[in-house]
Amino acid sequence: MTSPQGGPGAVTRPLLELRGVTAAYGGIEVLHGVDLAVPQGSVVALLGPNGAGKTTTLSVACGLMSPTAGKVFMADADVTGVRAEELARRGVVTIPEGKGIFPNLTVKENLLMATYGGVDMAHVEEVAYSRFTRLGERRSQVAGTLSGGEQQMLAMARGLAVDPAVLLLDELSMGLAPLVVEELYGIVAQIARTGTSILVVEQFARTVLGVADLAAVMVNGRIRAVGRPDEIESDLSAAYLGV
Prior knowledge:
Layout: E1 14-25, E2 28-39, E3 43-47, H1 54-61, E4 69-74, E5 77-78, H2 84-89, E6 92-95, H3 107-112, H4 121-131, H5 133-137, H6 148-160, E7 166-170, H7 178-193, E8 197-202, E9 214-219, E10 222-227, H8 233-241
Parallel strand pairs: 3-8, 3-9, 6-7, 7-8
Antiparallel strand pairs: 1-2, 1-4, 4-5, 9-10
Helix pairs in contact: 4-6
């Protein structure tokens, strides 16, 4: 297994950490002792083929699923088994696969949903339209009529409105054109530079490696390698080739 070798500016203290996590659906165990750390202000890519256990790992990290063993920590506090809504109040925001918007509401009405977390609407719109200018141009448009990339931007804008400490992204590139994906991941890198910790689950590894500080390769419910993108190249190839 490759390990990250903290270079200049590297942060060793993780904001989000899974230690020895196992998880199961019914009697079928799908995660087998997962160790994964997300340092503050870093982009960590969780990579692997379909069915590797990536989304289950994300579900445990955000409180949608309780581990059968192991621990989950946020800023050194044990949050194992804490419900998703409580973790959200502590700053863990998840953007699920499939964008997670309200298609029958306008862009502005979708953003209004973020205010139920106690955030002022003026702040929500400022964050959304400054990062995603196209949303400002389409604020009165019904969200379901936006392009796929714009819908993903809207989902991200709503999540960013609450100033998350940890942002969890599940298959951000799914169904989107390469140029749109490149734009979205450029924004992900900008968000990380503000201090937000980001864990990105991706099946298509090449789309995220350009902005990731660290990458973890998952195969069959286990982390096979962790390191900088250039360090885990051989492990990544082996994972997708089934070696």
